[in-house]
Amino acid sequence: MNWENVSQFLHMGGYGFYVWGSFGLSFALLALELLLLSVRRRTLLKRLGQIQRLNTP
Amino acid sequence: MSTINWYKYASPASFYGLAGKMIPGFAALSGILFIVGLYIGFFVAPTDAQQGEAYRIIFIHVPAAWMSMFIYVIMAIYAGIGLAFNTRLSSMMAQALAPTGALFCSIALFTGAFWGKPMWGAWWVWDARLTSQLILFFLYIGFISLQAAIDDPKRSDRAGALIALVGVVNVPIIYFSVKWWNTLHQGASINLTRAPSMAHTMLAGMLIMALACWMYAIAVTLYRVRLVILERERHSTWVAQLLKDMK
Amino acid sequence: MTIVMWVLKRDLLLAMRRKSDVLTTLFFFVIMVSLFPLGVGPEPQLLKAMGPGVLWVAALLASMLSLGRLFAADHGDGTLEQMLLCPESLALIVLAKTAVHWIASELPLVLMAPLLGLQFGLSGDALWVLALSLLLGTPVLSLVGAIGASLTLGLRGGGVLVSLLVLPLYIPVLIFGAGAVDANASGLGAGGHLSLLGALLVLALLATPKAAAAALRISLE
Asked: What is the ipTM of this complex?
């Protein structure tokens, strides 16, 4: 085991900001991509639904 | 022996369904691999003698850099197949891959900065690898903005394919020239090797993280290609049927 | 071959008639280069170190800005579509058009560059190397640029888009071109750089006309 307690784990031997900054930002970006994709899907389905309603009287 | 009719899945309509079935599997696999990879990266891999804990950035930086290059090549292959054989689905795959590739490219860039700051003392160093990564990012941006600027899907697919192929041919030339430039202008960069003593656990952690990123990329690309298919085929009867079934 | 000769003659004639186009690109280059000393200060040592890079980057930008003219006029009046239909190889026609484009908008820059190099305090030797590197490098810019110009033909915002497509591809030329002058200044000799530029030129001559022709077909179909 590398870490004795949580604060040591977060401290990362003095490099906490850099290590957690890179991992945090990386996963935040991946999450953002997923979020944007689901928003895109929702708006697309909504738009297609509207078009269909207009086409079927 | 039963043979699967693969050509069936080359049509966007049936691929839409197939992709939908494949996404959860890849997403779950990616999640598990991320957890295992992070566990190895933070709890199993020992502290590095030279770089201390800062080296742990390697577990996201290198996989992201690998993925950004790998996705560019795969994207160019799909685009090339689309151009040569006029298969719409492969062009759509190329289009769906590009944003994820650009995302991994930007992750590699800023994790490189986060690593460079404590190691080199500067957020950005004109190191050959970082510079090539930046140029790869520009190539992604070029591909994406060209496709976005063309309204006609057929022209957009083919123009994108051509610029992706030109890019893929140029990547080795660019990499070679940047390396050449870097060796001539020594002094700016201390040649820091990626991992001074690559322990087996470090390598294992890196590979598992790379696999996790790969599975993530597949899941997200399939998700995005489904949206592209829906957009492109919105006038077809199967999309109309699909929308009716959804209600 | 006759059609290629005809394209060469016609484009040369058109370029001669539109002298203002040539001058605009040239003056853009001159102004661009003159801005740098104003921006970074007149320190001779600094300017001498920056000179080759500044001249090369300015040449890159000037070349990129002139790309819009490569096919635009022929696209506008429908000549380009006729060219697509003619039996002669489209790649050869593209090559001829690119050659004339280079003569009209880049050769003047190559001739002007040593004069501007003097402003940056480059030595006589360095000026020769600079001119030679530009002579070898700028045709590559035109050839690669032809692909970008044909892909963005008729698109809205094509001018900015072409820069995104083409500038990353220009980087090797920039590195070897500016590097040649640097290597000469540091006493390493510019031979290696210049031969690499020559190799890039040969590669570009072999590969890009076909790619640009394919791009034209994509854009006009």
From this structure: 0.89
